[in-house]
Structure formats: structure tokens, C-alpha cells
Amino acid sequence: MRVPILAANWKMNLSRREAKNLVEDLLKVAQPFQQNQQREVVLCPSAHLLVEVGSLLEGKSNYGLGAQNVYWKESGAFTGELSSTMLRDCGCSHAIIGHSERRAYFHETDKDCYQKVEAALQNNLVPILCVGESLEQREAGKTKEIVLNQLQGALKGQSLSSGDKLVIAYEPIWAIGTGKTDTPEGAESTIAVLRQELGNLFGERIAQQVRLLYGGSVNPGNIDALMAQPNIDGALVGGASLKAESFARIVNYQTQASLAN
Ligand code: PGA
């Protein structure tokens, strides 16, 4: 069984004080530990908050700490960059790689993503690799082609011993921060194709272990329906992760079984 992951992408937001309040409130209201409802929560703050947020999460076994980016070199003259070893040193367990904002504003390519994924895997940092199509690409009927190319570009040739060391987030660009979401069935169909490709790349056993998340305007109102899809193993949440109440509701999404009770 794949343990669902609810990941918060805080992007370039929050002061140290705001972050502390948010984490403390979240820990009070979110209860991801209920029996039979094991869930992983990964908080991805901006770099200046990593150590502090990490220390607030200490001893909370269901919580992980993620960076929003990573550089593939170990150390040296790369001003402004952080290596996977440095991120591990800050307490990180995960790193978002290839977010569409980094691809668009910082010109990250699939080759960059490949090197970042490789460095992360080598240093025991779980990559949360993001893929997703633009509105134009979607309207041209190219969604699956685009996301498969991104997946192959970042992963083909990597060695992966186990599927729980990798997370993929399918985030249609037109859905990010817009209040528009893919339908649960639409997201499921793209994510199922991604899982199938993971099977081609790494074999069926590993493909069944990889957690595939949906991202793009996930909120308390749409999380339950998204999580009811068989291939959707969680969510990468931006805006709605900045408020303890809304992110806690997302972490505590209701399954069909719990809604029936
Ligand atoms: P959003 O962002 O939830 O605000 O749409 C998601 C993301 O960019 O990861």
C-alpha cells in the first residue's frame, strides 16, 4: 500500500515568525496519525526557514521537510546554490525538482532536472519531480506527450532501487494558483499514464511504489474527490497550504469509507 503524501509548497512566502505560527497551529489541528489512516506530510518552506521548521518537526515521524530546489554539484564556486548534502544538513528529507515556476522563470530544462534528481537520489533526498502542461499544450491535445517527455527527460537512465525514494507531482500549469483544477478523472487519467511509463523505465514493482501527487489549486473543497482516484497518492499544495485550517483539512481528507460512516 502506498502511504499518501500531502505536501505543502510555501513558495517564496512567510517570515520566520509567520512560519513558526503556521507550523504550531498546523500541528495542533492536523491529525494525520489516526489509525488506519497513515499519511505523510511534507512541508517545503523557502530556504531561510528550513532549519527552524525542521526543528519544530523534530520527533514527528509522519512529517518530512522539503526544499523547493536543489543544485546537483556537491560544493564549490556556485554562488547562491544549495547542494543536496547541504539540504540534508538542514534536515531535509525531500526536494521539489522542476517546479513549473522554476522551469518558466529560471529556465530549468529536463537535463537540469535529470542532474538534480540524480544528485538527490545519491544523497538520500527524495525528489518530488514536477511535470505539467501549459494551457496551450493542453488545448492542442498534447498533455500526455508533454508530461511523458518531462518524465523521461528527468528519469530515463537513473538508477532507482525502490519506488518509495521517488515522488512525482503532476501539476498542470494552467491550474497553479488560478483556482481552476483538473477534474479528478482528468488528473487520474494523466497520472495513470505517468505510472505506466514509470513501469517501462523501472519495472512494474517500482512503479507501483512511487507516490504520484496532483497539484494545482488543491483546496479543502476538492481534495476528497481527488484522493478517491486510484492512482492519485496525494497532493502538492501551494496557496491553501499557507493557512493552518485549510491545509489541516487537506491533510485530513476524507476517504469514501470515512464519508460513509
Ligand atoms: P497552488 O500551487 O496550490 O497555489 O495552485 C501548487 C504548486 O504550485 O505547487
Q: SSE layout and pairings?
A:
Blueprint: E1 5-9, H1 16-29, E2 40-44, H2 50-57, E3 63-67, H3 84-89, E4 94-97, H4 100-105, H5 110-122, E5 126-131, H6 135-139, H7 143-155, E6 167-170, H8 184-202, H9 204-209, E7 211-215, H10 223-227, E8 234-237, H11 244-251, H12 256-260
Parallel strand pairs: 1-2, 1-8, 2-3, 3-4, 4-5, 5-6, 6-7, 7-8
Bound molecules: 2-phosphoglycolic acid.
- What class would the helix/strand composition place it in? alpha/beta
Average of the residue pLDDT scores: 95
The CATH architecture category equals Alpha-Beta Barrel
Name the beta content range. 5-15%
Rg calc: 17 Å
- The CATH class name reads Alpha Beta
Bound molecules: 2-phosphoglycolic acid
Q: What is the total number of structural domains?
A: 1
How far from one another are the termini?
A: 22 Å
Q: What does the largest sheet look like?
A: 8 strands, parallel, barrel
Q: Uncertain spans, ≥5 residues at pLDDT below 50?
A: none
User: CATH topology, anyone?
Assistant: TIM Barrel
Q: Indicate the overall shape.
A: globular
| Spatial sequence of strands, sheet with the most strands | 1-2-3-4-5-6-7-8
From N to C, what is the helix and strand string?
EHEHEHEHHEHHEHHEHEHH
Query: Going by CATH, what is the homologous superfamily?
Result: Aldolase class I
The strand count comes to: 8
| Alpha plus pi helix count | 12
Residue share in helices? Answer: 40-55%
